[in-house]
């Protein structure tokens, strides 16, 4: 029994450590495009959000629950792309910690070129967030404009993950 308690404590410590992102990668849109392309043989969920967007914040717990379900799979990756300003980087880091975001979070520091990169990711995207894009082997296969339910997220992943 004592060994099980020790193992449980080690597991919880590791899970908490993994969940805490101490730094955030800052990217331009070209870097994000390349990052997505590098995820070969994976289903990649890319969610664009902001700490000041109420629907974005509302859907994040469901995204984290689903991310947790697939955390051990080598063929799955979730990337949360913050559209907060670079000046708000510390607020984003605090948000990551407070909301226990377990997916990789990047800060897209490219607001001035929104009219360039938004249509590169999705022609039908009008610039509103949240937006979720799904890629498989670097190719986009699904676009969700607006808040996404946990059921919709799970269904899209299950239908496209082998």
Automatic annotation (TrEMBL):
The UniProt record lists the keyword Signal: yes
Alphabetized CDD domains for the sequence: TlpA_like_family
Keyword Signal: yes
Thioredoxin domain ranges (all copies): 8-162
Keywords for this protein: Redox-active center, Signal
Signal peptide start and end residues: 1-21
Record InterPro entries: AhpC/TSA (IPR000866), Thioredoxin-like_sf (IPR036249), Thioredoxin_CS (IPR017937), Thioredoxin_domain (IPR013766), Thioredoxin_ResA/DsbE_sf (IPR050553)
Example of a GO MF term: antioxidant activity
Spans traversing the lipid bilayer: none
Record protein name field: TlpA family protein disulfide reductase
Lineage: Bacteria, Pseudomonadati, Bacteroidota, Flavobacteriia, Flavobacteriales
């Amino acid at each position: 029994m004592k060994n099980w308690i020790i193992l449980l404590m080690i597991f919880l410590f590791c899970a908490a450590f993994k969940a805490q992102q101490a730094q955030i990668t800052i990217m331009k849109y070209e870097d994000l495009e390349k990052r997505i392309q590098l995820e070969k043989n994976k289903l990649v969920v890319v969610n664009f959000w902001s700490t000041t967007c109420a629907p974005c914040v509302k859907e994040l717990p469901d995204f984290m629950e689903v991310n947790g379900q697939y955390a051990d799979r080598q063929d799955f990756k979730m990337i949360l792309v913050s559209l907060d300003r670079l000046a708000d980087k510390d607020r984003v880091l605090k948000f990551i910690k407070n909301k226990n975001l377990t997916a990789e979070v990047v800060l897209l520091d490219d607001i001035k070129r929104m009219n360039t990169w938004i249509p590169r990711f999705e022609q039908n995207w009008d610039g509103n967030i949240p937006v979720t894009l799904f890629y498989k082997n670097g190719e986009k296969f699904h676009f969700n404009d607006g808040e996404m339910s946990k059921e919709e997220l799970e269904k899209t992943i299950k239908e496209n993950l082998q």
